[in-house]
């Protein structure tokens, strides 16, 4: 969905994750129900894996994006394809934070919880603050279902939920009743209860409905009866909200017209933005895009998306395993393509030998690592930042490569372009470190104009580049550009440019096999010098009050860290913030920045990997603040930790 925003501005309050504020109240014209204006809302849909919570959240998000709110999402689902129904491990949820101003995170705690069964209620109630609204599907609160998750008595009747605003709604019964005229079994009708819930919430928050109705018609175009049933359930949910006395108030959250620069916007997830960034890079480089990949959570969406774009010269190869995927990609790089392989942490481990080969061959290759919880298979659907040291050192020998990390879902587009720039300019594999939080989360993205994209044009070697002592002209594949230290890129089949490739050490210049100790020492050092010399922007520091404490982040911690910094500044605290996109090489001014502060705090979703690198490189006593529970930081949690650092 796209929307137009017409006035640039930015609001930097500390609102991420706090309670929604009522900014106005009015009587709905021609009706009897109140309409309250809020500046932001956090909603969490939760249910069984088969209840369609991800689809429900996605549709609510799309309509919110088309309405013009700023938003941030957090899908959360189990790794099992289908965990046992009604169990705690089988609970799937989707959290959406939307507002009339600039926001940065999916929010710390939901203002509204939609619980489709007892498992969903029990799994999520600990995150719901007192006073919040809970919409409960009472039809699922059978004795057996409650016992399955450890409820000895119904929480709807034992007083344990007295501190919340409870809306008991028999969603299943109402859905079946709404579809009684359709030729469906009860079980088939029950599957539409998520659309009933979506309709109710759409009424409750004045969301547009046209996009969802169009989506349902398209999704079930080959099954018109199912499409009609879902539409009927969706409309029944809307009408229920309009007529029931249990919902006496509806809410409005105005568009965030002042939060964004002028432009055309759409809601986009990190993996989709990254896919579009790769396509844009190939077009800007005028190179075919080749993806050699093996499906792995949470990177598979990139393979799925790129496979749809053959019209842009994209070729996707789903290999039999991770090693074959990167082998094919490296072959495509040798053949003159913009080559990419996508994976997660376990796949990087399998690809490490071929990444080392790409370092030795000095060919451009993008290795996209969508990080997840580890080690081994770990937590496939949960997020983590624990592959940084693997990206930096996880190969045999001295095999340096650049590392780039996006900071938000939309920023994945720009990070892909930047990774391609480095790979093509310096003839090197590049590691792009996203993670599950960015990959599955979404936010508004301004669609760039073509003239805003970088020029990535590549010059292939066309003929001999060296003259021997006898005057004959030859092609030396390892004769380097004096500025970038990049070697020539010679497409196979170009007459006169035949040259050897392989994993054994090369002789400087000629590329011949060499076991000479001095040559090996030279080649190791020159490959390192090439990476160290990559031109990356200086790190920018946000320090409006002359703080003595700096919080340094990287990757997906940007949103929570920035939200925490806003909170502290709103409370009168002075704190500086810097965020790294380039992790190898580090920006040239980073050492100077770090030494300008008395304290440096580095929050990471690992046990201190960037902090280890910073301490070793700059001899700065950086303090780690770490979390490895598979979930992103909460703004309030970080604000408390940073306040302690300031006061300590």
Q: Which features characterize this protein?
A:
648 residues; alpha/beta; seven-stranded mixed sheet; six-stranded mixed sheet; 20 helices; 34% helix; disordered N terminus
The largest beta-sheet arranges its strands as 13-12-14-15-17-16-24
Shape: globular
- For the CA atoms, what is the radius of gyration? 27 Å
Major beta sheet summary:
7 strands, mixed
Question: Termini distance?
Answer: 47 Å
Number of strands: 26
What average pLDDT do the residues reach? 94
Strand content: 15-25%
**Approximate helicity band:** 25-40%
Low-confidence stretches: 3-13
Which structural class should the secondary elements be placed in?
alpha/beta
What's the helix count?
Answer: 20
Fold and architecture overview:
With 648 residues, the protein is α/β, with parallel strands linked by helices. It is built from 20 helices and 26 strands. The strands form six sheets. Strands 13-12-14-15-17-16-24 form a seven-stranded mixed β-sheet, with helices on both faces. A hairpin with a 5-residue loop joins strand 19 and strand 20. Helix 7 packs antiparallel against helix 8. The two termini are 47 Å apart. The model is unreliable at 3-13 (pLDDT under 50).
């Amino acid at each position: 969905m796209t929307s137009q925003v017409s006035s640039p501005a930015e609001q930097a309050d500390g609102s991420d994750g706090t309670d929604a504020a009522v900014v106005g109240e009015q009587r709905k014209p021609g009706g009897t129900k109140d309409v309250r204006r809020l500046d932001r809302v956090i909603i969490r849909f939760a249910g069984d894996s088969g209840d369609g919570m991800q689809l429900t959240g996605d549709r609510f998000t799309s309509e919110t994006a088309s309405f013009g709110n700023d938003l941030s999402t957090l899908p959360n689902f189990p790794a099992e394809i289908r965990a046992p129904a009604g169990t705690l491990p089988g609970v799937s949820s989707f959290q959406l934070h939307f507002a009339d101003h600039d926001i940065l995170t999916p929010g710390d705690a939901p203002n509204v919880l939609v619980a489709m069964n007892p498992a969903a209620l029990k799994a999520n109630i600990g995150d719901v603050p007192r006073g919040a609204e809970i919409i409960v599907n009472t039809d699922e609160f059978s004795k057996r279902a409650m016992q399955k998750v450890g409820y000895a008595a119904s929480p709807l009747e034992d007083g344990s939920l007295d501190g919340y605003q409870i809306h008991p709604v028999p969603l299943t019964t109402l859905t079946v009743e709404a579809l009684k005229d359709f030729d469906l079994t009860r079980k088939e009708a029950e599957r539409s209860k998520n659309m009933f819930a979506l309709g109710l919430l759409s009424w409750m928050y004045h969301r547009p409905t046209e996009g969802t109705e169009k989506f349902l018609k398209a999704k079930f175009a080959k099954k018109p009866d199912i499409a009609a049933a879902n539409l009927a359930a969706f409309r029944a949910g809307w009408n229920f909200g309009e007529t029931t006395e249990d919902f006496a108030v509806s809410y409005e959250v105005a568009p965030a017209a002042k939060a964004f620069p002028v432009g055309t916007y759409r809601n986009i997830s990190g993996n989709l933005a990254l896919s579009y960034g790769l396509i844009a890079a190939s077009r800007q480089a005028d190179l075919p895009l080749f993806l050699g990949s093996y499906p792995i959570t949470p990177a598979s969406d990139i393979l799925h998306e790129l496979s749809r774009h053959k019209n842009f010269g994209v070729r996707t190869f789903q290999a039999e395993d991770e090693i074959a995927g990167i082998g094919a990609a490296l072959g495509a790089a040798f053949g003159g393509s913009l080559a990419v392989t996508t994976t997660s942490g376990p796949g990087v481990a399998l690809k490490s030998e071929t990444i080392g080969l790409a370092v030795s061959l000095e060919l451009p290759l993008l290795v996209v690592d969508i990080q997840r919880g580890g080690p081994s298979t770990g937590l496939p659907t949960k997020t983590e930042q624990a592959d940084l040291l693997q990206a930096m050192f996880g190969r045999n020998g001295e095999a340096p490569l650049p590392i780039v990390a996006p900071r938000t879902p939309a920023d994945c587009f720009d990070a892909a372009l930047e990774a391609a720039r480095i790979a093509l300019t310096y003839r090197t594999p590049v590691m792009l470190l996203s993670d599950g939080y960015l990959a599955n989360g979404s936010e508004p993205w301004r669609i760039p104009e073509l003239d805003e994209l970088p020029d990535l044009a590549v010059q292939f070697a066309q003929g001999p580049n060296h003259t021997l002592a006898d005057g004959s002209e030859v092609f030396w594949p390892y004769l380097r550009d004096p500025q970038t230290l990049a070697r020539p890129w010679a497409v196979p089949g170009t007459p006169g440019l035949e040259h050897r490739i392989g994993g054994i050490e090369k002789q400087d210049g000629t590329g011949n096999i060499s076991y000479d100790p001095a040559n090996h020492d030279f080649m190791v050092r020159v490959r390192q010098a090439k990476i160290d010399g990559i031109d990356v922007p200086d790190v920018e520091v946000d320090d409006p009050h002359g703080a003595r404490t700096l919080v340094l982040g990287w990757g997906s911690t940007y949103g929570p860290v920035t939200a925490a910094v806003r909170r502290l500044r709103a409370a009168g605290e002075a704190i500086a913030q810097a965020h790294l996109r380039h992790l190898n090489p580090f920006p040239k001014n980073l050492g100077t920045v770090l030494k300008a502060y008395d304290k440096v705090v580095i929050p990471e979703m690992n046990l201190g990997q960037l902090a280890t690198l910073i301490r070793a490189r700059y001899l700065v006593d950086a303090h780690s603040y770490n979390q490895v529970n598979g979930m992103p930081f909460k703004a309030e949690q970080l604000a408390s930790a940073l306040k302690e650092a300031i006061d300590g």
